[in-house]
Write a structure and sequence with these properties.
Layout: E1 52-53, E2 55-56, H1 57-69, H2 74-82, E3 98-100, H3 108-130, H4 133-149, E4 152-154, H5 158-179, H6 191-205, H7 218-234, H8 238-255, H9 276-282, H10 301-320, H11 325-344, H12 367-376, H13 382-391, H14 404-408
Parallel strand pairs: 3-4
Antiparallel strand pairs: 1-2
Helix pairs in contact: 1-3, 3-4, 3-5, 4-5, 4-6, 5-6, 5-7, 7-8, 7-10, 8-10, 8-11, 10-11, 11-12, 11-13
């Protein structure tokens, strides 16, 4: 099997050991099964909901109301965001024409692109909470700076880098484009610059996702899907949106294992992992498979966290567009979040799992999926909930996850806004 390029690694601190993992992995546990996925199909002529990339208008209203009321954990999450470097009035973007990202390296241009996208999103959220036009203008300034000069992504990590930044750009752009108005009611982000930014997303980002990555670690494919779906919504491009749905439906079942898949995990479509031994090698030598195990669990929990975040982001955006991807993978998500959260919390690790030494480096990646499973579906996920509460407020990984305690901590109803 071909060597799989891997993204720049960021080591996160492990959490202190605490509660022991319950016997969720017992062999006698009921067999979990996700509902059968429907055949990929076009969503139809239904118009896209805007804003509708990760957040919709009602969620923006709710988070603002919670912050204004001083409710927790939103108030603390907001303070963390507002005090971050991304929120500074003097933040200056650092655009370049070509973002060249080699594997295992982190050149300044790659860091700058990701951080500037997070800054644009941070400023868009600040605008949503405060109503201060200076924040919307700062977000626009950052996005305009990049759309004016960026032309391409190159080198081995081009696709992943474009996915990390592209997913965040789409969230920022969606909020600003559809909520920012000037005092006379006209669009705050001029149409010609929106068009230029759209051109950048289509040609410098979407073009990078055409590469086939079936033999790469699965967080690549899932992060590309997250970015493509969000960009498709921003561009009002139904073809891009539907292609991302199909990619999600093909890859998620090949990343998060359920025993209903059979004795071995499903192979990514189009990949070279076509024998039992190749599949085990692709899963980093793991030989025993239990509900919720991820393809990269025995690499480290950090990259499983990336995959969980990307899966939840994609399903959340689809949810806002009337497509229930969550329902198709609910049991996989439940099992995966509970398994990894349990060990991250300090549960005793069995010898058969990653040789008894998994790298417990899960990051701030679970707020979105926790909100859907616990608060919308009322599915018990006690380990996930305990871990998330312990690590709040979730900040940013400086890649493509940012401020998700603020945006997705839970309550669907909000106190009345101040006059």
């Amino acid at each position: 099997m071909a060597t799989r390029p891997r993204p720049v690694r960021r080591i996160r601190s492990g959490l202190a050991a605490c509660a022991v993992l319950v016997a969720a992995l017992a062999a006698a546990a009921p067999r979990a099964v996700d509902p059968p996925a429907p055949a990929p199909r076009a969503v139809g002529p239904r118009a896209f909901t805007h804003p509708g990339v990760l957040l919709d208008r009602s969620q923006l209203h709710v988070l603002r109301a919670h912050v204004e009321s001083g409710a927790e954990p939103w108030a603390s999450a907001y303070r963390a965001m507002a005090n971050s470097r991304y929120a500074q009035a003097g933040y200056r973007p650092r655009p370049v024409a070509v973002v060249a990202c080699k594997p295992y390296e982190n050149p300044p241009a790659c860091t700058a692109e990701r951080e500037d996208a997070v800054a644009a999103y941070t400023q868009a959220l600040l605008w949503s909470v405060t109503g201060k036009r200076a924040h919307a203008e700062k977000s626009v300034q950052i996005m305009d700076a990049w759309s004016k000069v960026l032309r391409d992504h190159t080198e081995g990590n081009a696709g992943l880098q474009a996915a990390w930044a592209g997913s965040t750009w789409a969230r920022a752009a969606e909020i600003v484009r559809h909520t920012y108005k000037t005092s006379d009611g006209s669009d705050g982000w001029p149409k010609d610059r929106v068009a230029r930014f759209s051109h950048m997303l289509r040609h410098a980002y979407l073009a990078e996702f055409d590469v086939k990555v079936a033999d790469y670690n699965g967080n690549w494919d899932l992060t590309m899907t997250d970015a493509a779906l969000g960009i498709g919504v921003f561009l009002d491009d139904r073809k891009v949106f539907d292609q991302a749905l199909a990619r999600f439906r093909a890859r998620v079942p090949a990343y998060f294992y359920l025993r209903s898949d059979g004795p071995l995990p499903l192979a990514p479509p189009g990949g070279s992992a076509d024998t039992p031994e190749k599949i085990r090698a692709y899963w980093f030598g793991q030989r025993r498979f239990v509900d919720g195990l991820g393809q990269e669990s025995c690499r480290n929990f950090e990259h499983v966290g990336y995959a969980l975040a990307a899966t939840a982001h994609t399903a959340e955006t689809a949810h806002h567009q009337g497509v229930d991807l969550y329902g198709e993978v609910r049991e996989r998500l439940r099992a995966a979040t509970e398994l990894h959260s349990g060990y991250q919390l300090g549960g005793a690790v069995p010898q058969w799992l990653c040789g008894g030494k998994p790298e417990l480096t899960l990051g701030p990646d679970l707020e979105v999926v926790l909100n859907h499973l616990k608060n919308r579906l009322h599915v018990p996920v006690p380990h996930t909930e305990r871990l998330v509460r312990r690590t709040r407020p979730a900040g940013t990984d400086d890649l493509f996850v940012a401020w998700e305690t603020l945006t997705h901590a839970g309550a669907s109803s909000a106190p009345k806004l101040r006059p």
